[in-house]
Amino acid sequence: MAVYVFKFGGTSVGSVERIKAVAEKVKAAHDKGDQLVVVLSAMSGETNRLTDLAMQVQQAPVSREMDVLLSTGEQVTVALLSMALQELGCPARSYTGSQVRIETDSTHTKARITHIDDAKIKADLNAGKVVVVAGFQGVDEHGNITTLGRGGSDTTAVALAAALKADECHIYTDVDGVYTTDPRVEPNARRLDKITFEEMLEMSSLGSKVLQIRSVEFAGKYNVALRVLSSFSEGRGTLITYEESEVEQALISGIAFNKDEAKLTITGVPDIPGAASKILGPIADANIEIDMIIQNVADDATTDFTFTVHRNDFDKAKDILTCTCRELGAGAVTTDNRIVKVSIVGVGMRSHAGIASKMFKALADEAINIKMIATSEIKISVVVDEKYLELAVRALHAAFELDKDPKVTQS
Amino acid sequence: MAVYVFKFGGTSVGSVERIKAVAEKVKAAHDKGDQLVVVLSAMSGETNRLTDLAMQVQQAPVSREMDVLLSTGEQVTVALLSMALQELGCPARSYTGSQVRIETDSTHTKARITHIDDAKIKADLNAGKVVVVAGFQGVDEHGNITTLGRGGSDTTAVALAAALKADECHIYTDVDGVYTTDPRVEPNARRLDKITFEEMLEMSSLGSKVLQIRSVEFAGKYNVALRVLSSFSEGRGTLITYEESEVEQALISGIAFNKDEAKLTITGVPDIPGAASKILGPIADANIEIDMIIQNVADDATTDFTFTVHRNDFDKAKDILTCTCRELGAGAVTTDNRIVKVSIVGVGMRSHAGIASKMFKALADEAINIKMIATSEIKISVVVDEKYLELAVRALHAAFELDKDPKVTQS
């Protein structure tokens, strides 16, 4: 008898009909004899509705009360799913975060789980009940309701799976798994049966958003096997595992891209100690996150410095950098916000040489000019002109034969 | 420094604007230096919206889950009011029933309060905070969320007032107090400054619904001084007190009426022991509540038996009584569902003779025929043809000079 934690997001429980469909899915799994904990988000739109109400009352709503307010969203869905399951003859019981109880610190609206009391859940599971838990919420040591922030339901599911030592944690979404790249860009994109946590982290942070990064990190830390599946269809989805040996032995697993970046360069910076921090300090002070950083020595006395930021922060970053340029007596600021970052990700590149040159050749063959390069142990990223996005992704997808099942094509 | 419990119903918190208005009212009271606990219902319409969702999922929703679902309604309003108060610079903190904690038995959807832990509330009050509590809900000994049933927010307010030994419990509604009768029937109806609990119970059960009967009974039991006031205007409202001596020394305090009754008579019943139970037993078995009962001996061997039921139960009661009539070998069944019950209520009638005859004379002067009479210690009720409702109420209102202030007109 296996123990599973299933998590369904807001779209999956967005209407009475969909809640009933989730109940059918859960009942079918329960009928197989497995023990099931189901974690739910609020109905899609509900969190926004409640936030709007709060904003009408208070421009900057008190965070403690915001948590009291928002936590009602999941309380509604767990009650309704529990009813729907019992209507199907499947014994079920709902729990709020406080009831479980899922203890957190007191950082309202973005609390962190500190402890889960699994006694009630285990008793219900052993009594043959499906346990339905409100995601996204917990309770602090003083009994205050807390929430884990957006995407917190994934975290709840992973934390429960860790506490219960569940066999797998299933994250049901509107996609049927993790793909080698975005199928809207490359129709030959293939669903991966397995992917490592490290690869998933790189894929998520690079824009192939399937799961919240925090929940993936959390799952990796506690060795929780995550599986991404579709709420709306059958299929095995993609297993995200911490066992590298279990994964398909491909050179790379996928191609991620990010269209939200902009590039800024400051040239002719005096090459003295502390120049980098003088350039990036004011950017960080303005709460602008920096992604890639490259520093080239132009000549003996000066250096060029390039970095990328989110496009939303582009104008602000440009203003700050222009000031810094004057203060440092540097040459000039040049910018480009019509760029994309394309990355190949795979644990396979650890043990295979020549991946980078294969990547650069594939891009060169299509006459795609590379503007920046950054590498990590399992990822190589390049920045190219945004007009080349589709071409670059498809060229790399073909070069690394991602459309083919590696179990068949490789020895 | 006085301690008050304020309760606002669903209409009073039915929109963001109204919640802000409630916050202004509460802040004004807090600024006077009093300690305040505010009990809220769900926004008007919200309980129905949630019930509709549940009914779409399950024809007869599981009561435990219904309570989880419905309790979110008050959780939303307490969060929003707490925000609104803090926006006005008034320190405030919200509590769900579980958080307080308001302990109840495990009778879901109509639980009874068994214990209130006032430690957190008292600590907050002593720290100068307004405490905002979700009405209608509690928690059982196993940590399950319970609700007290419709009107339960009044009960929450009274129970908190009793636990905190509050000076007064203010019930804010859409009327500005208890009137001598319904002002829509008698424009000269006068707001009462005070009324006893006993009178209030008789007025409520007779159709002048201002408060839930259960909360009035509860208030009487625990000597909680209730005051009924308007959410939407200023004024002192009506104090409902258990001290008979405090009340205006009028003969009667008010005139209640009930348009929802129907009368059934069975004639020629053999006058033998057990006849009454043979007649009323099957009616009670069908869960039909009986209001007035009159038995007249018609001759030596037979008796006539008349009773009233709610109009909704009229057809069912008539069918049952027709069967009973055959079984008992009684004469016939006659019915009348175009009747109203009009009652005069007042603790003053205990110490004054001649009230009944004054009432009957006032009706006779208007040629109103009395079909049934029933009396209790502080109430006399008559059943008359429904077309005489307004005439009867106005005649009695004038006869007992209810439009005049008794402190001025009586010695």
Automatic annotation (TrEMBL), chains A, B:
Chain ranges of the ACT domain: 264-342, 344-411
- A single GO molecular function term of this UniProt record: aspartate kinase activity
What stretches pass through the bilayer?
A: none
Q: Which residues bind substrate?
A: T47, E74
- Stored CDD domains: AAK_AKii-LysC-BS, ACT_AK-LysC-DapG-like_2, ACT_AKii-LysC-BS-like_1
Q: Name one GO cellular component term.
A: cytosol
Query: Does the keyword section mention Transferase?
Result: yes
Q: In which pathway does it act?
A: Amino-acid biosynthesis; L-methionine biosynthesis via de novo pathway; L-homoserine from L-aspartate: step 1/3; Amino-acid biosynthesis; L-threonine biosynthesis; L-threonine from L-aspartate: step 1/5; Amino-acid biosynthesis; L-lysine biosynthesis via DAP pathway; (S)-tetrahydrodipicolinate from L-aspartate: step 1/4
Task: Please provide the record's keywords in A-Z order.
Answer: Amino-acid biosynthesis, ATP-binding, Kinase, Lysine biosynthesis, Nucleotide-binding, Transferase
Name the protein family. Answer: Belongs to the aspartokinase family.
Entry-linked PANTHER family: ASPARTATE KINASE, ASPARTOKINASE
Name of the protein in its database record = Aspartokinase
The organism encoding this protein is Methyloprofundus sedimenti
